[in-house]
Amino acid sequence: MAADHDMTHECPAVGCTRRVVPNQLACRDDWYRLPTGLRRQIYRAYYGPGPGSSMHNTALDAAIEWYRDNP
User: Fold this and answer.
1) Taking Cα atoms as reference points, which of 37, 18, 35 lies closest to residue 26?
2) CB contact at 8 A, 42 and 65
3) What is the pLDDT of residues 18-54, one digit of tens each?
4) Domain residues of the chain, as ranges?
5) Is residue 14 pLDDT above 90, yes or no?
6) Which residues 6+ apart lie within 8 Å of 66 measured at CB?
7) Are 63 and 12 in contact (CB under 8 A)?
8) What is the DSSP secondary-structure string of 4-68?
9) What is the pTM of this model?
10) Torsion of Cα atoms, 27 then 6 then 61 then 70, to 10°
11) CA distances from 41 to 1, 24, 25, 32, 57 (A)
């Protein structure tokens, strides 16, 4: 059986080493650090076109860029 961390990924926030499940972008603390507008874009894309859509990927990329710019 695979270790639990094999099915997770590291939170994208700079300096955070927490692991999160695949259907979440970031750990709870860092998720709520994201500006509300970015969180809403991710929700709309996730529940609209869905994961893997260009809309969802664009929203995730914007959030990851925000984390890089706001350590």
Assistant:
1) 18
2) no
3) 999 988 999 999 999 999 999 999 999 999 988 889 9
4) 26-71
5) yes
6) 34, 35, 38
7) yes
8) GGGG-EE--STT---EE-TT-SS-HHHHHHS-HHHHHHHHHHHHTT-TTSHHHHHHHHHHHHHHH
9) 0.82
10) 40
11) 36, 14, 13, 14, 10
Instruction: Please report, as a single letter, which amino acid is at residue 31.
Output: W
Residue identified by tokens 């929700």 is 43
Measure the CA–CA gap between 53 and 33, rounded to whole angstroms.
Answer: 24
CB 4 within 8 A of CB 11: no
For the record, the structure tokens of 33 come out as 């650090």
- Token output for 34: 């994201």
Residue bearing tokens 């990329």: 61
- Name the DSSP class of 69: H
